[in-house]
Amino acid sequence: MSAALAAFISAVISVVLTIAGTLVGLRSSASQAALFLVLTWLLIAASIATGVVAVWLLADSIRKDVRELAHLRDLEAYVPRLIRFRRRHDTFVIAGDGNATLRISCDVESPDAAVVPWISFPMIAEVPQDTPPWSSISVRRVSVDGVESDPGIAFIKRERKIPADPTALDGRLVESGAVRVPVSLDPGRTRCSFTVELELIGAFGFIGHEEKCYTDVSYVTDDLEVTIIGQNGLRVSCSPFAQTRVEAQQLGMEMPDAPESQLQSRYCQMTDGVRWKTAQAKLGYRYAIPVRGHP
Q1: Can you tell me whether residue 20 is helix, strand or coil?
Q2: Cα gap 49→75, rounded to integer Å
Q3: What residues have CB less than 8 Å from 196, skipping those under 6 apart?
Q4: Fewest Cβ atoms nearer than 10 Å: which of 114, 171, 174, 200?
């Protein structure tokens, strides 16, 4: 209960008890009847006032929550306009046991010299359902302009979802979250470079058949490069089962964007692994590169 509401109710009870005590002490029935009427109306007024105060406090709490949610929503919508990725290079190194490392190197800029304490970008992994919860994505290193930060607080868990169609991902589930990077940009420091290194445990268990490497474009990106190579003798190539070398879809959508997929597939080559480099990545798109590993 709100402190203001509790104080109001306490004051009303004190007044009622005072009047009740006075009512008991009166010997005149006429005086008692008059005071009892006053007490009745006071109780009615107090009940109405208490209800009004409670509704006002509830409405005020809801307004604060709505303002906070609106602020977060506006921040999510605004931050991509504050930040521009001049260069981004994702490097997947996949092992035959289904584990992989991912290194993300970026040069970012705040063209409007805005204050941006941190940025985040989505991260997902597809793993077997018997995998221990939240063991598939592990941040090992976060470095901004050579300054190391705590990787243990970099990953934010968001959703652990079993697909509605179990056959869609070979019975696997999806763990998704976001990696936060403390870029600390302000009018006196409008550019920085950062590196994030992650381990993806068990996320490529079907590399012998087909797996997908995901890259989400959450910010305007001038140059995007994705390199996918094998480890310990594993050779990685584009999947022969996929219709396009790069599959594009809008974030949050399940339907692929066929024209965008065909366009980006032109820039995907197989040279010592799989390499995709583009200067035309669309903001708000998720790109998947289907690959297959060979011993």
Answers
A1: helix
A2: 39
A3: 103, 104, 139, 141, 142, 143, 154, 179, 181
A4: 171
Instruction: Give the CA distances from residue 215 to residues 34, 125, 164, 194, in Å, rounded to whole numbers and listed in that order.
Output: 79, 11, 23, 17
What is the per-residue pLDDT for 2? Answer: 53
Is a pLDDT exceeding 70 seen at residue 209? yes
Beta carbons within 8 Å of 128's beta carbon, 6+ residues apart:
171, 172, 173, 202, 205
**CB-CB neighbours of 177 under 10 Å:** 21
Q: What's the pLDDT score for residue 88?
A: 98
Quote the tokens at residue 104: 């993300």
User: What is the radius of gyration, based on Cα positions, of the chain?
Assistant: 30
pLDDT for position 77: 45
Q: Nearest Cα to 250, choosing from 291, 214, 216, 290?
A: 216
Query: Distance of alpha carbon 280 from its chain centroid, rounded?
Result: 25
Residue 8 in this model has a pLDDT that exceeds 70: no
Please return the burial class of 149, using the count of CB atoms within 10 Å of its CB with bins 0-12, 13-18 and 19+: middle
Identify the pLDDT of residue 249.
Answer: 94
Given a contact cutoff of 8 angstroms between Cβ atoms, the answer to whether 183 and 118 are in contact is yes
Closest CA to 215 of 203, 207, 225, 201: 225
Helix (H) or strand (E) holding 104: strand 100-109
Name the band, by pLDDT with cuts 50, 70 and 90, for residue 162. confident
pLDDT tens digits for range 22-78: 555 555 555 656 666 766 776 677 677 676 766 777 766 666 655 544 444 444 444
Instruction: Give the SS3 label for residue 10.
Output: helix
Q: In what order do the strands lie in the sheet with 173-181?
A: 119-127, 173-181, 155-161
HSE-up of residue 52 (Cα within 13 Å, Cβ side) = 7
Could you tell me which of 25, 215, 23, 219 has the C-alpha nearest to residue 111? Answer: 219
